# Entry
Amino acid sequence: MEIDFLFIKLLILLFNLKMIHAAITAVAGYLPEKRLTNLDLEKMVDTTDEWIKERTGIEERRILVGNDLGISELAIPAVQELCKKANIEPSEIDLLIFATVTPDMVFPATANIVCDKIGAKKAWGFDLSAACSGFIYALTVGAQFIQTGSYKKVVVVGADKMSSIIDYTDRNTCIIFGDGAGAVLLEPTTDDIGIKDFIHYSDGNGAQFLHMKAGGSKRPATFKTVENREHFVYQEGKNVFKYAVVKMAEVSLELMNKNHLKSEDIHWLVPHQANKRIIDSTVQRTGIHPDKVMVNIHKYGNTTAATIPLCLRDYETLLKKGDNLILTSFGGGFTWGAIWVKWAYDGK
Ligand code: UT7
# Structure
């Protein structure tokens, strides 16, 4: 594989051809109004603001309230905002990839629902399920369609309505998660910017530590599964933590070494926002300066597939063309990985 790639690179050099890169040319996000604070949670379960802040770094999260409102409710305004910022019509989108574990329905794909609602008439799309790594997996998939020259406009959404699968009587999980949606636009460029490289992994053995017991084809919904509260996130936090602190740093360093990047070459580390202590440990292990790390967990908690695009949105004005970003995530599956992005524009 490596030899094939080198051969293609050689051909490109010999014939003075330009490689097509997938550049992120716009970023947007949308969060529901309702704030669920640590003080609110103190009234719901046996916890304290102090414990949550100290153990996770979270102060509040956003929750989508109202009947019959799915994750598309947050993703639609995010993608509309994205089109506005990029100055494109939704009808120009070729493909929309929707990373989520909380689709509106098991089927059809929420990608199809979003495309219909925003008027993305020529786009096709699909949902991608990789939990907290959903966005980085989807970004890598989307980039392939640009790099091969197949498409000109690919939208990658990372969005989750975690409140729909969280048990608000379980203090182990309800303090962590929140709802949110983020999206980026990928477009082709022959400049030396965009998605430069990636490494992804998965290990299904991790399913035992983080999963939803019922609602899939293995255990369809019954009165019993509902009574047993099996339609909520089940997490053995300590075990997940143990892997997350090692794997995000390990894969980031592997990607950096592969591309001869030193920690001082990295302008921004964009880690999945699961726990501030996991982020701090990743920063320490990679040697990247703590001032160069995107953090917004205190405002939104863990929004699963939305954390990374929401970080990009929140820090967009600080980003400069040519900045080296390492996006990294670890989550349910287990799934994990890292992407090296050379940022394509000065933040506005
Ligand atoms: O994004 C997807 C991947 N997910 C993650 O990366 C999450 C990884 N895990 C974590 O972030 C952490 O494990 C948690 C935040 C979930 C839990 O923090 P922890 O420091 O690992 O706590 P623990 O589960 O080891 O529990 C320590 C103690 C226990 O009490 P005892 O047994 O020592 O008496 C818990 O019962 O803290 C207790 N505890 C709480 N106390 C107050 C657990 N949750 C709470 C709570 N409030 N909300």
